[in-house]
TrEMBL record:
One of its GO terms (molecular function) is hydrolase activity, acting on carbon-nitrogen (but not peptide) bonds. InterPro entries: Glyco_hydro/deAcase_b/a-brl (IPR011330), NODB_dom (IPR002509), PGA_deacetylase_PgaB (IPR023854), PGA_deacetylase_PgaB_C (IPR032772), Polysacch_Deacetylase (IPR051398). The keyword Signal applies. Residues 107-388 form the NodB homology domain. Residues 1-22 form the signal peptide. The keyword Signal applies. This is Poly-beta-1,6-N-acetyl-D-glucosamine N-deacetylase PgaB. One of its GO terms (biological process) is carbohydrate metabolic process. It comes from Chromohalobacter moromii. The gene is pgaB. Keywords: Signal.
């Protein structure tokens, strides 16, 4: 029942290969040339497919349940696998391959079915028997206990009202709706299901005894949302820290870990008591899992875990956590094949992004915050961009240094607990990826003496040093105390918002030619290894690498809490000057080559007026694109981020000129565009010209897969 994850991941088309369901048609024959197999799963690898309900009459059912597949289409897929030499495998096969006992067969596929639905026994199990195919069947034990016993435990109304909760959330409701289903019913994708909608334990035992079906836990009570912030947003229970409005506090780490651990153990106990076999696999609801929940699952005794979002087909040895491809839209076999094919040769995904100031949305009045958020959502949705770089730090004085943050943390004041809410609303209502835009060095600590002790320092001619008093007040990347502090901040960000898709590192991550004298301090250490610095006269490339390594340390903190079903990506701002003049690396400790090698995206500040060029802006942009394309994958990985405001003249750039710049960049070969700033309250830059410039439809030859 992936209603939450559909909005988080698949509502944006990240993994769907096929179109939405049209009128029903006859299932294609395996001998039909239109479905001939062109895809070969690499030897030693396997694909995992995630199915849900299987319906007799496909079309009417799929209209309200996009995750259902018709019995006819599923049988056609089984037929297709048989005809094209694709081989379903079991967890025993994967375990044997992992242990070197026997290799996987060619074109190995693991079939998995979620939620413990009755249709698995009535429609899927006979197909498994007919074809002698194994499958993994994931059961939400809390649901089975409820429909079998009619019992209601603490917070059960949330579990049974998940769809209604989500609908209320999307409407900006902040209260938790009560149960409308009976005590022995589950609200499942818009319809009530009682005992007849789920398997019985007798059926489970029968299927398990056949040797074809392995039972996995789908958790006991984590297939639901819980309140995750003061505003009442409901987010996946396996990842979110529960927010208590009465105390105004979040669930602490110990309580969170205990809750997840107890749930997994309880579910395993229920399955073992009813089947005699303890499950060895967890299939996470919504695919919601991270490094922390994975460690909890291992501690609870599970050997395998499965999420969603398999963008690269794994080998048995790459586990024990594996991704799955979500089958939705009642696809024909050729579309499922194409979905697997995308993992082998992922299509280019052209970027369109807007960098958004959360400072502009914030207000002391909650009603005004709500109005500003509505304006932002309307604007982003209408603009049809794919990504928002969302400010996670507060900078009310505009100096670029984080004086406070928009999420709970242990080091800086929290201006407002706002980032989680806005990020969640952008993902679920505007359907975009959200990157947290955060400084790497520029944090203004509350303790002035600590700030000065850790701050970047400038080499003086007499061999002494002084605190760098420049545009950004930056912490030194060579001080272990600063390394630990920034790691904690990034971890706190992802802990409070585990659904973010990535991070944009702010343009504060630079060191000038006469910086950083902190490398000469006795306490100084290289960020990557912690080893002492023996020669503190560092080259520009040394400092460039040090900043990359410092960032990697910080990002490790965020990755620990990031949802593994997302492809967590990292973008980093880069000054245009170092692209146009590579010798400028000495002035910034930045370089395009190392950035392209290390980051998923380079957010190049293609801002001619900010750069101070004397050339016409159009000529300057042409030169910038030409320089980028000299690098391997330069155009693929570079996001050209245009300025919409001229800070020197304090005026907005003419909208049509901005549009023309965008068109010019694309004609020259640029693939990825972004812009900053965006005044979503007053509507600047003007919508229509900006939309025309950002639209992928303007240049059909440059379109990528959605």
């Amino acid at each position: 029942m992936p209603s939450l994850v559909s909005i988080l991941l698949f509502g944006m088309g990240l993994l769907m290969a096929g179109p939405s369901v049209a009128e029903p048609s006859a299932a294609p024959s395996p001998s039909d040339p239109a479905v001939s197999a062109n895809v070969h799963i690499p030897d030693g690898h396997f694909a995992t497919l995630a199915f849900h309900d299987v319906r007799d009459a496909a079309q009417p059912a799929v209209g309200r349940d996009p995750y259902a597949i018709s019995h006819e289409r599923l049988a056609a897929w089984f037929d297709w696998m048989l005809a094209h030499d694709w081989h379903p495998v079991s967890l025993d096969d994967i375990q044997a391959a992992r242990q070197g006992k026997r290799p996987l067969p060619s074109n190995a596929v693991l079939l998995s079915f979620d939620d413990g639905l009755e249709s698995f026994y009535r429609r899927v199990y006979p197909l498994l028997q007919a074809y002698d195919y194994p499958a993994l069947f994931a059961i939400e034990t809390g649901w089975l206990e409820r429909v079998r016993k009619g019992e209601r435990g603490q917070d059960k109304h949330i579990a049974t009202r998940e769809t209604a909760q989500l609908a209320a959330h999307l409407g900006n409701a902040t209260s938790d709706p009560r149960d409308e289903a009976a005590a022995d019913e589950i609200q499942y994708n818009g319809a009530k299901r009682g005992q007849a909608g789920f398997v019985t334990w007798g059926q489970v035992r029968e299927m398990q005894a056949s040797g074809l079906v392995e039972i996995a836990t789908h958790t006991h009570d984590l297939h639901r949302g819980i309140r995750a912030n003061p505003q009442g947003n409901v987010e996946p229970a396996a990842l979110a820290r529960r927010y208590d409005p009465a105390s105004g506090e979040y669930e602490d780490d110990a309580a969170y870990r205990q809750r997840i651990h107890d749930d997994l153990v309880q579910s395993a106990d229920v399955i073992e008591s009813n089947t005699g076999v303890r499950p060895r696999a967890v299939v996470w609801p919504y695919g919601a899992t991270n490094a922390e929940t994975e460690a909890i699952a291992r501690d609870a005794g599970f050997e395998f875990t499965f999420n969603l979002g398999d963008r690269h087909l794994p080998t048995p040895a790459s586990g024990p956590d594996f991704g799955r491809l979500l089958v939705m839209g009642n696809p024909p076999p050729v579309d499922i094949e194409a979905q697997v094919a995308q993992t082998l040769d992922p299509p280019a995904r052209i970027q369109r992004a807007v960098q958004v100031d959360l400072d502009m949305l914030y207000d002391d009045d909650p009603e005004q915050v709500h109005a500003n958020l509505s304006a932002l959502l309307d604007r982003i949705k209408a603009m049809q961009v794919r990504t928002v770089y969302l400010q996670a730090f507060a900078d009310p004085d505009g100096d670029g240094t984080a004086s406070s943050l928009y999420f709970p943390n242990d080091h800086l004041p929290m201006r407002a607990d706002l980032f989680n809410r806005v990020a969640w609303q952008l993902k679920t209502r505007a359907g975009v990826d959200v990157y947290a835009w955060l400084p790497l060095l520029a944090f203004d600590l509350p303790d002035d003496s600590r700030q000065r002790r850790l701050q970047v320092r400038v080499h003086e001619a007499d061999g002494e040093s002084r605190v760098a008093e420049r545009a950004y007040r930056r912490l030194s990347p060579f001080r272990p105390e600063a390394q630990a502090l920034v790691h904690d901040i990034y971890a706190d960000l992802a802990r409070s918002t585990p659904g973010i898709d990535g991070i944009l590192i702010h343009d504060d991550a630079y060191l000038a030619a006469d910086e950083d004298a902190q490398a000469c301090a006795p306490e100084a250490r290289w960020p990557d290894s912690g080893r002492q610095i023996t020669d503190c006269k560092l080259s520009a490339r040394d400092k460039t690498r040090a900043l990359i390594d410092f960032g990697e340390q910080a990002l490790d903190g965020a990755r620990h809490y990031a949802n593994l079903s997302n492809r967590f990506r990292v973008a980093r701002n880069l000054y245009a000057r170092v692209v146009l003049d590579p010798s400028a690396e000495a002035r910034f400790s930045q370089a395009l080559g190392p950035f392209l090698e290390h980051y998923d995206d380079v957010a190049l500040m293609a801002m001619p007026y900010l750069d101070g060029t004397e050339k016409p802006a159009e000529e300057w942009l042409d030169t910038l694109v030409d320089r980028v394309q000299r690098y391997p994958r330069g155009l693929d990985k570079t996001v050209f981020e245009l300025q919409t405001y001229d800070w020197e003249r304090q005026e907005w750039i003419a909208p049509r000129r901005l549009r023309d710049w965008m068109h010019q960049l694309v004609r020259r070969g640029a693939l990825n565009l972004a812009y900053y700033p965006d005044d979503f309250i007053t509507g600047k830059p003007a919508f229509q010209p900006t939309f025309e410039g950002m639209s992928l439809n303007e240049f059909p030859h440059r379109r990528s897969q959605p």
